[in-house]
Write a structure and sequence with these properties.
Number of domains: 2
Helix content: 55-70%
CATH superfamily of the largest domain: CDP-alcohol phosphotransferase transmembrane (TM) domain
Largest sheet: 5 strands, mixed
Number of helices: 15
Strand content: 5-15%
CATH topology of the largest domain: Four Helix Bundle (Hemerythrin (Met), subunit A)
Strand order of the largest sheet: 1-6-9-8-10
């Protein structure tokens, strides 16, 4: 249940936009993403229910309070609390004692009871989270909530919005990011995403932009000139930065889809193939021989095979965060985008071919590592 905040300042924050979405809509979508079967929202003006449009949430009123008959867990969150889906999932899954009221300092409450209708009816009658807690304390013994508080951000006023957005954006950084990706690229992509979130730009449109930038850089590697090669490498790097924005926007605005993920993944690999092929062709033309084309073919074939294996057996962020096997962590590290900085350095000297030669050896080795890991450890998840 989403209930009104305890203070007027909190109510003002609850009605504001955070990273492109109304806070109450963001809370409802996060709950749906976390696996909540039903989301009830108290105190939504009858004339303005647009923040709930398409979410599946129901408006809770005293006349429309439901009375479930079976034992259920009821989670109450004030509308000024910005949550992470993983935190809401923890509230749903953490073992708790029945007929006890669990409360955290932000007035989030959980109770698992044989009479959930009483709790829902109390929420329907209460004008604020504080009033609801007072009622529930008369019905249940109170204990501290056994869930860490780092997964939610209470907004006490509109002045908290910039800090809340920064907190939300930091959560988009994956645990298996490469060093340069985490400390350089993400700083730029998150800054761009923060501005794009308030616009109508979609994740798929950002995917197309990033692919276009990457493909524009590929022909630069046909030249032997360090200036042209460096220009291509910098466009390749720009592609990588922009490629981060589409996933960030999708996660930030709850627009993730399998189709969008496929476009992003294979578009990224299309750019890699174009860069490898251009380096190979340019090198072949300069030396007047075909053997660089062989190196390019090996790099492209191994890269696409690795991509197919990785797409089917996604190396998820949580696999590394959870401390998987050394081979799993190695795959996650090697799959990072930090190799792009090697391309930038060698291209500055007009030696992009050196990277292609390394890729012709490294890409097949990476493919063998993935296949070995699949054989011995099962799917990399």
């Amino acid at each position: 249940m989403v209930v009104p905040p305890a203070t007027e300042a909190g109510r003002g924050a609850a009605s504001a936009f955070v990273a492109g979405l109304p806070l109450i809509r963001r809370l409802v979508l996060a709950a749906s993403c976390a696996g909540y079967g039903r989301v009830l929202v108290r105190d939504v003006p009858p004339g303005d229910r647009s923040p709930l449009a398409g979410t599946g949430a129901s408006v809770l009123t005293p006349a429309g309070a439901v009375s479930p008959s079976s034992c259920q867990r009821v989670v109450s969150v004030p509308a000024n609390v910005l949550p992470q889906p993983r935190w809401l999932r923890a509230l749903l899954e953490t073992p708790i004692e029945r007929e006890k009221l669990y409360v955290d300092p932000s007035m989030v409450a959980i109770v698992e009871t044989e009479q959930p209708g009483r709790v829902i009816a109390a929420a329907a009658r209460s004008a604020s989270a504080a009033e609801l807690l007072d009622t529930l304390r008369g019905m249940f013994d109170e204990v501290a909530l056994p869930v860490e508080s780092g997964g939610r951000f209470p907004l006490t006023s509109l002045r908290d919005i910039p800090e809340a957005e920064a907190w939300l954006l930091r959560s988009l950084v994956k645990q298996n990011e490469g060093f340069m990706s985490r400390h350089f690229e993400r700083r730029i992509s998150l800054a761009l995403t923060r501005r794009l979130a308030a616009t109508s730009v979609t994740p798929n449109s950002m995917t197309l932009v990033s692919i276009a930038v990457g493909l524009a850089g590929a022909p630069c590697f046909l030249s032997a000139s360090p200036a042209w090669q460096l220009a291509g490498a910098l466009l390749f790097l720009a592609h990588s930065i922009l490629d981060g924005c589409d996933g960030e926007l999708a996660r930030l605005k709850f627009l993730e889809s399998r189709r969008g993920a496929a476009w992003d993944f294979w578009g990224d690999n299309l750019v890699h193939v174009a860069v490898f092929a251009s380096i190979a062709i340019g090198w072949s033309l300069r030396v007047g021989a075909a053997w660089p084309l062989g190196l390019g073919a090996v790099a492209v074939a191994a890269s696409l095979s690795s991509a197919a294996a990785m797409f089917a057996r996604t190396v998820e962020d949580r696999a590394v965060a959870a401390g998987g096997s050394p081979a799993t962590r190695l795959v996650g590290a090697l799959a990072s985008r930090d190799f792009i900085y090697v391309v930038v350095v060698v291209s500055a000297f007009g030696k992009a071919g050196w990277f292609l030669a390394a890729a012709a050896v490294g890409a097949p080795a990476f493919l063998l590592l993935i296949l070995w890991l699949d054989r011995h450890d099962g799917r990399v998840r």
